[in-house]
Amino acid sequence: MKKIVISWLVCVLGVALIFAWMGNDLLPKDSSSQNSNPLIQAKFTLQGEQDKIVRAEELRGKYLLVYFGFTHCPDICPTTLLLMSNVIGKLGDASKNIQPLFISVDPERDTPSATAAYAKNFGKDFMGLSGTPEQIKEAADSFKVFYSKVEDANSALGYVVDHSSFIYLMGPDGHYVAHFPSTVSEAELKKELNRYVK
Known about the structure:
The chain is α/β, with parallel strands linked by helices. It has a single domain, classed as 3-Layer(aba) Sandwich (Glutaredoxin), CATH 3.40.30.10. The chain is about 30% helix and about 20% strand. The strands form 3 sheets. The protein has a 5-stranded mixed beta sheet, sandwiched between helices. A two-stranded antiparallel ribbon has the order 1-2. The chain has a two-stranded antiparallel ribbon with strand order 6-7. Helix 2 (about 75-90) crosses helix 5 (about 185-195).
């Protein structure tokens, strides 16, 4: 229990530091106001199903709904991905314009194939991506995502990965539109996506 509390505190501290560093620039805004000097960008070269290389620019034309996590996450990651799935399922025709994306922050265990298969548990259109530690760092840095491996001798898995827990909405042009905490309600997330997704 003590290990869980410490892990949770490290994650909260990481998120707090991100907000302190970014200040108001991380608050949700229209993508048009972010284009001049965006702090958050969709910039990555990762691997998906059957180790296929996927570059951020190849996903242009759709809104990206992005979440960073890891497949061995016991609670927050599956809960957040289920939230995304439920909301997308209630958007009607607008859902066709959204590509849900799960990016692993655990390259040691999450192979591209395993990550892709895990993401499909939440919907046939969900894309799961992983890669080398360097590739994942580039992706996480572009979204200003904090993550850290935490050794846990009491865990059967040996370690956990603390990470910031936000859902990012990127526009069809690849620019940042908004972000939402993983604790956002289905109703609020649906309202916001209806507001932004055209």
